[in-house]
Prior knowledge:
By secondary structure, the chain is of the alpha/beta class. It has eight helices and seven strands; from the N terminus they run E-H-E-H-E-H-E-H-E-H-E-H-H-H-E. Helix 4 links the parallel strand 4 and strand 5.
Amino acid sequence: MSLQESKVAIVTGASQGIGAAIARVLARDGFRVVAVARTAGALETVVESLPTPSIAVPCDLRAPGAADEVVDVVLGRFGRIDLLVNNAGATPRGDFLSFSDSDWHEGFALKFFATVALCRVAWPALLASHGAVVNIAGIGGRTGNAEFTIGGSVNAALLNLTKALADRGIRDGIRVNAVNPSSIATERTRKRIQTIADAQAITIEQAAENLARQLGVARLGTPEEIANVVAFLASDAASYMQGAIVDVDGGQTRTL
Length: 256
């Protein structure tokens, strides 16, 4: 396949952590990457490091019409969309009673409603390319936790959306799957580890080990491990996977 014909992937939340790792791995596999996030500087840094012709689209996906703008940019630049990776959005931990209505609305706005909008707007282009969607959810969508009520609810909704779009995708020739990460060593998790270390007056390494032990896993995962699973789901090797929900959590989820 020539460079002009090489596949195009949209990756949201691509300025750091899991999203940046996904962008790097997909570019390694030959995708031209459209990296989307709110932080322009960090996003440009990621794109500049990629080996394929890729672009940054700084954008707040919570804004009305943002999904349309992203897709318009992609089609105007590359003329096709082969893969949509919905990774944007983080949700807070905390006491259920402490969260306001606006906290709940904000929790759903980026991770869920932006995913809905992008899937809807990108669907015709994905239909034309027989493309794929990979949603990054989280194991909180499988197992409820009193300290993760917003995140668990958002992830559960995202997993149901994955199954529903996969059902539609059978008819339209679009594969839709999801990945459920657990505690991955991202910037956000490192802050959590630092808080533990400060509170317990221990080293960062000890705090990371304590967190892993608390979660019931041998160690924390890496963003690259999530990215490699996304790359597999985007590849022809996963051509018979439809509506799959892949837990990449070190064995933390023990329910069926």
